[in-house]
Amino acid sequence: MEEGETKKMLFEPVSISGLTAKNRIVRSATYEKRADEDGFATEELINMYEELARGGVGLIVTGVALVHPSGRGMPKMLSVHSDRYIDKLSELTGRVHAAGGVIALQLLHGGRQCPPLYIGGEAPMAPSEVPDTSTGITPRAMRDEEIWMIIEAFGEAARRGLAAGFDAVQIHAAHGYLVSSFLSPYTNRRDDYWGGDEERRFHFVEEAYKAMRAGAGKSFPLMIKMNGDDLLPGGITPGESMRAARRLEDMGIDAIEISGGMRESAIKTIRPGILKPQDEAYFRDIGALFKKNVSVPVIVTGGMRTRKVMEGVLKRGEADLAGMSRPLIRQPDLPKLFKQGREKADCISCNKCANFLKLDTVRCVALEEGA
Ligand SMILES: Cc1cc2nc3c(=O)[nH]c(=O)nc-3n(C[C@H](O)[C@H](O)[C@H](O)COP(=O)(O)O)c2cc1C
pLDDT tens for residues 230-250? Predict the structure, then answer.
């Protein structure tokens, strides 16, 4: 393919089951720390999403939105665990649409990675009592009825996402949070319907998907962000993850985003120092594996920094869409700049934006420091 043709690909529209993104750049979910203490969207948060929409990104995925109070992973995150949230979320989607954007809501239960501070001092919920070696916190194993309660919460949250005018919802099944911890053999040591072998580890996401489909209806796009690799011994591998993706495709999932790693992984989800093209697109090999095995759109996220690398990933069939988080914190108008000929994001992957417990809002600290 000629250079001109590959350039066209990044800015070619793509359809995800009825949703049309005007280009193949996805703003991957990024916690904003801009909801109020109760999880309602604030003016500041809505302004941030309007700015992203005006910046020309093809598809925005919101930061994590809480499906059940027992899964609060961080403060000032969006919430969608009650109908009370629908009005404010409708205002958010209305303003994003008016600014020309397309927006999906990401649904989260934080599972074993919830700090007890945010869940009333309780031990966090998980499939099994596997201590988190990075914090020393041991979660408690969920009872069967609790598992069904959270599955129902995902279904209700998807229904609210549709009611609030989102173009899609995405279940967060990556990074060691609850759904991911059921899929992972490292964190799921159960021997019942919910764990024991690969098929049973899949049951939580299978039931959550069914609940979401029942809640949001047949034609609403449902997406998943999943770990292609947990990046730790005993964790989910690209092969097992790909087979889960195939099952989800058979059930009707509309798009799959690939990421990897969890809090305990040695190699991180959010890798620092992505300064050379060789370091970019660090899940591209997993993208290639998924692309060979599923036919729904595949989004690959992690370390996309230059237009050329993103175009190469699309051209070689390693992904259908390229996801970005940190570069769009610094430059919400980066897609527009790429379209005008800019080659590279200004993001230096210093990860100061990810130190969110210390920040009052998630933002580019390097930019403020002049770096
Ligand atoms: C500040 C910050 C917040 C994030 N919040 C989320 C989130 O809410 N949901 C999610 O799936 N991933 C989240 N991530 C991970 C990103 O979506 C992405 O997978 C990761 O940063 C790698 O992509 P990048 O190199 O483009 O930043 C977050 C990352 C950062 C830096």
Answer: 999 999 999 999 999 999 999
Strand partners, 161: none
Ligand 1 centre from 153 Cα, in Å? 23
Q: Please answer whether residues 329 and 364 qualify as being in contact, where contact means their C-beta atoms are separated by less than 8 angstroms.
A: yes
What domains are there in the chain, each with its CATH number? 3-368 (3.20.20.70)
CB of 301 shorter than 6 A to ligand 1: yes
Structure tokens at 57: 């990104």
User: Is 85 part of the annotated catalytic residue set?
Assistant: no
Question: pTM for the full model?
Answer: 0.97
pLDDT in the model for residue 8: 56
CA atoms within 13 A on the CB side of 319: 28
Per the CB < 8 A criterion, the answer to whether 93 and 165 are in contact is yes
User: What is the end-to-end Cα distance of the chain in Å, rounded?
Assistant: 37
Ligand 1 pocket, residue 170 CB under 6 Å: no
| pLDDT surpassing 50 at residue 2 | no
Q: Tokens in use for 30?
A: 């990024």
- Beta carbons within 8 Å of 83's beta carbon, 6+ residues apart: 160
Dihedral through CA 152, CA 158, CA 163, CA 168, nearest 10? -170
Distance of CA 275 to the CA centre of its chain: 23
**Which is the closest atom of ligand 1 to the Cα of 353?**
1
Q: What value does the CA radius of gyration of the chain take, rounded to a whole number of Å?
A: 19
Q: Is the CB of 356 under 6 A from ligand 1?
A: yes
Count other Cβ atoms within 10 Å, centred on residue 51: 14
Mind listing the pLDDT tens digit for each residue in 166-194? 999 999 999 999 999 999 999 999 999 99
